[in-house]
Predict the 3D structure of the following.
Amino acid sequence: MSEFNTMEQQASYGVGRQMGEQLAANSFEGIDIPAVQAGLADAFEGKESAVAMEDLQVAFTEISRRLQAAQEEAAEAASAEGENFLAENAKRDEVTVTDSGLQYEVITQGEGEKPTLDSTIRAHYHGTFINGDVFDSSVTRGEPAEFPVPGVIAGWTEALQLMPVGTKLKLFVPQHLAYGERGAGASIPPFSALVFEVELLAIV
């Protein structure tokens, strides 16, 4: 049975939980939850800060520096991992490498019309990282996607114009033709090389 029985207690717990979820999404190594709770209580009760403002600023600056360094290290590792994967993948006979660095493998060759930059298309796709982990899949959802050819990542825009309707390709997309240094929200880290199976169903 819950220890939070009144509506006020339950709402209060909900507030704390939402704050905790936000904190977990923007946390740092070594965070001290009792200290967080103490700071929350002192601020709510209007008490003087237990830590001098100048010390808080120094701590915030140092933690920010550590986070940035960790992000840069992770980005460099991801970039190198992607480059190594693509270099090895390009050696396979079934893989074609375009001038931009896009790699693709033909799974099914269609005979229909090819899209242009003015086209809107319908396609099924299955997107993974180079380790095979899935980050997005219309196949899993069971619902094809529709979008304009220039409205997607550069690797897709290039590949779609090579694909007659009915074609299914496996794309190996370097980070500079994907989401690059920005990444894509929480789902795709910066500098990630990506792999897609794309089946062009129709030009709409």
Notes: Strands lie at 96-97, 103-108, 120-129, 134-137, 145-148, 168-173, 194-203. The two ends are 55 Å apart (CA to CA). The mean pLDDT is 93. The longest helix spans residues 53-89.
